[in-house]
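User: quick one
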Amino acid sequence: MTVWVNGEAREVPEGTLLSSLLESLRIGGPGVAVEVNAEVVRRARHAEHSLREGDRVEIVTFVGGG
Amino acid sequence: MSGIVDKPFTLAGVTFSSRLILGTGKYPSHDIMKRCHELSGTEMVTVAVRRLDLKATGEASLMNWIDRNRLRLLPNTALCYTADDAVRTCRLAEELGMSKWVKLEVLGDEKTLYPDVEETVKAARILVKEGFTVLPYTSDDPITARKLEDAGCAAVMPLAAPIGSGLGIRNPHNIRLIRETVKVPVIVDAGVGTASDAAIAMELGVDALLMNTAIAGAKDPVRMAVAMKKAVEAGRDAFLAGRIPRKAYGSASSPIEGLVE
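Assistant: Done. Structure below.
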């Protein structure tokens, strides 16, 4: 199935967990926050959140700003 | 300065010994930014929330250059144009930073970067209800400042001039009116170009200053950070000291009597 990660299409197996997607991208730790379909998914729930076809995943971090 | 006391700068129950808040954007390097943070004496720095670059390898994370033992993080909603986007950014910032303090910034125009005050007030109401400590960037309008205070914001942060413009304090009268209008701290955010601007803002009686470009964009940012520290302290002391009234004519400083003849 296709999910959208930071605006780019990505093929993942059906029912992929959010935590698995992040692992495959080598992303983890406290430096990122994740939204699925514009709702924050708390870090503690990444391993129980299954993705669905067409989900929009946003992975953000802190950058320099004023 | 023995015997000279000032009441500490307190924001949402947290006491700061520095009245200078800095940004983390546009510095020539992370190393220079870190030096500026150290030498300015700042205790709080703003950060932005953006998409992680998934292609970047071994990214030199900004957070490696921020001393979190000494500096409180203030995530912003920079370049949000609607209340909804700003609220969404604040929720992400909370997940990232483990804190509910946010600099709310909802812009109305890409050219001037002026705030959309209607959307700002709307976002502030939602965020306060969700338990955020909201520090809103706003125009220099005292009525909007009052609405933001009524919405439960922990401070109001009027602009002195457009973001990054370095035009200085364009409307000191309005900044003073805002200081008289609200009880929450007033933090001048945006527009300062050089140290004298910072001193002028503090002389108006505001509680603190937030700046980024004036330091990050200076030819020697580290030296400007030092200058800003001194200017903020000088301006604050001058405000507390109370300036002399302006007079139309000269008034001799030396005695008129006793001149030799």
